[in-house]
Amino acid sequence: MEPARSSSYDRLAAYINQRMRMSHIYQPLMLMELLGRSSPAPAEDIARRILGEDSSQIDYYTERVKRMVGRVLTSNGITSHAGGVYSLIGADDLSEIERDALLQLCREKLDAFRLKRGDEVFAHRSRHRTAISGSIRYRVFTRAKGRCECCGAHEHQAALEVDHIIPKNHGGSDDISNFQALCFRCNAGKRDSDSTDFRGVLQSYDHRQEGCLFCELQNSDRGLLRNELAFCIADAYPVTKGHSLVIPCRHVADGMELHQPEWNAVTALLKQRRQDLEMADASISGFNIGLNSGDSAGQTVMHAHWHLIPRRKGDVADPRGGVRGVIAHRMRY
Fold first, then answer.
1. Annotated catalytic sites, by residue?
2. How many other C-beta atoms lie within 10 A of the C-beta of residue 310?
3. CA-CA distance, 172 to 175, in Å (whole number)?
4. How many CB atoms lie within 10 A of CB 319?
5. If exposure means fewest CB atoms within 10 Å of the residue's CB, which of 7, 216, 246, 250 is most exposed?
6. pLDDT averaged over consecutive 10-residue blocks of the chain (333 residues)?
7. 245 bridge partner residues
8. Distance CA 288, CA 188 (A)
9. How far apart are CA 142 and CA 131, in angstroms?
10. Does residue 289 contact residue 306 with C-beta atoms inside 8 Å?
11. 230 close to 262: Cβ distance less than 8 angstroms
């Protein structure tokens, strides 16, 4: 027989199951920290628990291990590295007392360094020595719509950093006009020798062309799905039931000229529309997905767009070759 549950259990279980909002991960992580200990938890311990679940932070320090500390310790014969795993050379020869003594030596070194350097210990984390205020960071990240202005990664996918477009050691200022949002990986690759300004990419997303059919359709009632950088409509002249178009919001003729965030946006809508069609129509058994690029390829509206065409068994006598059918006599092989 199961033991009777306490009223505290019932109260907490009811909150977790029925009332706890999951707009972010913080509430369950705080509860997990408190449930896992027999004493009250300082805010710092709860913060450590949250950081332990933050993959962007883990990615950042994983790179630091690979590029810096792991490489240095291995080159000095202190550690070995194989298959992504680090080992302490000679660890099996250490007694528990010796391990404790070495741990204490490391702690003393760390405490002395932090006492001397203070907050500067982790100054490298933001890749600049001048502290950037929270209000400036907010403005830079808001201007970038919470995305890396180079690769398009969202702030929930990778830690964003405020980057000096013209590096400080090249005379760059701390004015907001010299800041851009980059994820850790793009910022690490850019380094302080590159002054590439990615903000023009963000501004280009607003480009529309007067008289363009698809620029004018972006807010029409033909819209089926949309996200920040692309939208989906039903094709006006469908070749099969459900034939849809996915179109980048920015006016650009060649779909191969999209910026990475636009590729991400288009792909997301193609996947979502395909899923919606499959759920609504069990007769769909395949899809053709295509981009016409240029007059010779049959493009008639010079605003890039992808065709998503549902296929059904028997809709043509012999479907072999699929999109090869754009050159009819080469369709089958």
1. 305
2. 23
3. 9
4. 15
5. 7
6. 72 79 74 82 83 72 78 86 87 85 81 72 52 81 85 81 81 79 82 69 85 91 87 94 96 90 86 95 95 94 97 93 86 76
7. 233, 307
8. 39
9. 19
10. yes
11. yes
Which residues, including other chains, have CB under 8 Å from residue 245's CB and lie 6 or more apart? 232, 233, 234, 235, 305, 306, 307, 308
Backbone angles phi, psi at 284, to 5 degrees: -70, 130
Structure tokens at 182: 């980059």
For residue 94, the tally of other CB atoms under 10 A from its CB is 13
Angle at 290 between CA 231 and CA 274, to 5 degrees: 55
How many CA atoms, within 13 angstroms, populate the side-chain half-sphere of residue 192?
11
State how far the alpha carbon of 329 is from the alpha carbons of 2, 149, 247, 326, in Å.
73, 45, 30, 9
Structure-token pair, residue 28: 């369950």
**Between the CA of residue 308 and those of 70, 100, 259, 265, 273, what are the distances in Å?**
48, 63, 21, 15, 8
Structure tokens at 25: 């991960």
C-alpha 312/C-alpha 307 separation (Å) is 16
- Structure tokens given for 260: 């990475």
- Tell me the two tokens of residue 317: 């006598």
Long-range contacts of 168-171 (CB under 8 A, 24+ apart): 168/128, 168/129, 168/130, 168/192, 170/195
**Tokens 């009332």 sit on residue:** 19
Quick one: CATH architecture of 213-316?
2-Layer Sandwich (3.30)
Give the global pTM. 0.51
